[in-house]
Design a protein that fits this description.
This is Beta-glucosidase. By secondary structure, this protein is an alpha/beta fold. 38% of the residues lie in helices and 15% in strands. It binds ligand GBH.
Length: 463
């Protein structure tokens, strides 16, 4: 080989970027600093029995005070992109009206520090920390929240868009709607399937209104997106019953939110499946679907594992997070399990990226989150997280396979930069590529971070 490449090396396209992601509530701590208002996750985590071990977002990784050290670690690793989220209650403590400039100043400092270190900031406007004052008025079940989100988004964009060129509106609206208002395992902890469908619509509407507001303010080199948690749905049979089970769950997990974003409206089969829940569709007004279909410049996809299902008695109402789901049994994850008991089946990521490319051939895709939780063992000051590293390499290979087969994937971001507050299970699960000692706040780079650093430096996966 004249270029000296090893043939079997998997080379990524020029410009493919590598980085890591976090979310405000999961890392920042400092929950009352600088006028920050209360979020639904402060309330939820303070409610006994909601979060494992009574863990809260205080102090988490104390990133609010330690962001310089954290950016320095990213720079040391040579990460090219850092995806973070902005805490709405830091910017508008009660979710509307008055802007808290001290909150904006934090993100100002963070962005400047990233740029000074040569790291491209990628901002997410909402990663689940709704101001409690808005939840008190109905949260995402209340249509007004969509309007408030667009207003808030516009405020943040005005303050940071001179330096932040890459933006996402919502992180995983599926989780906000269905874990928050149907299964109730996330804040605000409501279990009302019909209400969760209204929430889903208002989340999409909030995204659409924010897209319109940001477009009106943006320059040509700003790119705007939304981030979805998508998961291929797998089953053990090919008969009608098995295919129906897959169709129903794929509908509620993937197509219900993706189709309207791509301008196709809500999928008719899913609407028919959930019809028995009543008239939640009354919340859809003229113009909503057009707003939701405002073109995005790229799509963020978060992937962890495929979803396994089996057919069940048609009258069986499937318990859990999917509103209106009937006749399906949700099966446990497969493959060697992670420390969190999640599946490891990287082929599902290839399938997902190729499916998405087929659904939206002109929309570039970014893997905005992918990662795994395992307990860490510190040996001689080092953390050889071989299982997390193997998960990373398997999934990076899966991304490469998708690209080879035509998918337009532009970058890969590991979840997460730091061990952090893992929502309903608190600090019990570690997704970080950097270890955090929650007693001392000491950071230790893991083998997985070194591996990501090598990927970022070489843009290839050695055979
Ligand atoms: C992401 O969500 C989040 O964006 C991030 O904040 C989080 O820390 C990270 O993943 C790790 O959890 O089987 O119906 O009970 C993950 C998306 C989708 C993962 C639903 C858990 C199980 C729901 N989640 N899934 S269910």
């Amino acid at each position: 080989d004249p270029a000296g490449l090893v043939d079997s090396d998997l080379v990524f396209p020029p410009g493919f970027f590598w980085g890591a992601a976090t979310a405000a509530f999961q890392i920042e701590g400092a929950v009352t600093a600088d006028g920050r208002g209360q979020s639904i996750w402060d309330t939820f985590s303070a409610t006994p029995g909601k979060v494992l071990n009574g863990d809260t977002g205080d102090p988490a990784c104390d990133h609010y005070h330690r962001y310089r050290e954290d950016v320095a670690l990213m720079a040391e690793l040579g990460l090219e992109v850092y995806r973070f989220s902005v805490s709405w209650p830091r910017i508008q403590p009660t979710g509307s009206g008055r802007v808290e400039s001290r909150g904006l100043d934090f993100y100002d400092r963070l962005v400047d520090e990233l740029l000074a270190q040569g790291i491209r900031p990628m901002a997410t406007l909402y990663h689940w920390d709704l101001p409690q004052a808005l939840e008190d008025k109905g949260g995402w079940v209340n249509r007004d929240t969509a309007q408030r989100f667009a207003e808030y988004s516009s405020i943040v964009f005005s303050a940071l868009s001179d330096r932040v060129r890459t933006w996402s509106t919502l992180n995983e609206p599926w989780c906000s709607a269905f874990l928050g208002y149907c299964g109730g395992i996330h804040a605000p902890g409501i279990t009302d399937p019909a209400a969760s469908l209204k929430a889903a619509h208002h989340l999409l509407l909030g995204h659409g209104l924010a897209m319109q507001a940001l477009r009106a303010q943006s320059q040509p080199d700003h790119t705007l997106s939304i981030v979805l948690n998508l998961s291929p749905v797998w089953t053990d049979g090919v008969d009608h019953e098995h295919r129906e089970a897959v169709r129903k769950v794929d509908g509620l997990q993937n197509r219900l939110l993706l189709d309207p974003l791509l301008g196709r409206g809500y999928p008719a089969d899913v609407l028919a499946d959930v019809d028995w829940l009543g008239d939640w569709e009354m919340v859809i007004r003229d113009g909503d679907m057009d707003a939701i279909a405002t073109p995005i410049d790229w799509l963020g996809v978060n992937f962890y594992q495929p979803t396994w299902v089996a057919p069940a008695d048609p009258a069986f109402v499937t318990p859990g997070n999917m509103p209106g789901l009937k006749g399906v049994e949700m099966l446990p994850p497969r493959g060697p399990l992670t420390g969190f008991g999640w599946g490891q089946q990287a082929d599902a990521l290839t399938e997902l990226l190729l499916w998405l490319h087929n659904q939206a051939p002109k929309t570039p895709i970014v893997v905005t989150e992918n990662g795994s939780s395992f307990p860490d063992r510190i040996v001689g000051g080092a953390i050889m997280d071989t299982e997390r590293t193997q998960y990373l390499l398997n999934h990076v290979r899966a991304v490469h396979t998708a690209i080879t087969n035509g998918a337009d994937v532009r970058g890969y971001l590991a979840w997460s930069l730091l061990d952090n507050f893992e929502w309903a299970v608190g600090y019990s699960q570690r997704f970080g590529i950097i270890h955090v000692d929650f007693e001392t706040q000491k950071r230790t780079i893991k083998q997985s971070a070194q591996t990501l650093a090598t990927l970022a430096r070489t843009n290839r996966l050695p055979a």
